[in-house]
Amino acid sequence: MSAILIFLAGVAGIIAWWMARQRLTSKPWLEVGLAGDAPEMQGSSATIAKLGLGIFLAVIGALFTLLISAYLSRMGGADWWAIPIPRLLWVNTAALAASSVALQWAKTEARLDRGEMLNTALAVAFVLAVLFLAGQVLAWRQLVSAGYLLADNPSNSFFYMITGLHGLHILGGLFVLGRTVIRARIIPVLTGVRLSVDLCAIYWHFMLAVWLILFALFAGWANSFVDLCRQLVT
Hints:
By secondary structure, this protein is mainly α. The chain is 76% helix and 0% strand. About 8% of the residues have low confidence.
């Protein structure tokens, strides 16, 4: 319950900050002058796209928050044995972090209209994300080979379900990122792909943050923080 309250408070704070930046709380009927004199009020397609992505990410965040809350509630059972964390997950985490950094790099190159460097950055981000997914599958195989099967223990089931769901969201992001990579190579004017690069970067940063939380959860690092949050809420 505490994890859900913390998440909702965080979402509310992010929404308030975003609305302040996008001037959604302003009163346009009180503005003085012609509509053409306010360029910051034009080009709302990017704002709408980012708002849609923000709502989608809020839903994803709520889903993972519920799963994390269920995980924390279930781990107190007598039949719970924590699943060991494969060392490969460290490599996978580094790959996803590097992919997120590469997308931030691509975002910078798109704004500077440097097409060649943009293509390189997007390709690096795509390859690293594919390596992350391949590493996750390989980590699963290592655990199964070691005898940690899906139905043997609640901890195993939660691990495979949560990491698999996160992997599916990365796979969906790869589809969009792949389209962006292709568009960046065939469209001579980079203004047509800047929004796509921005949206991919936002999505990737969010999925990286989710994975870091999950990794800390599976590694047992988040237990003391969760206990503190419970004490504050109660």
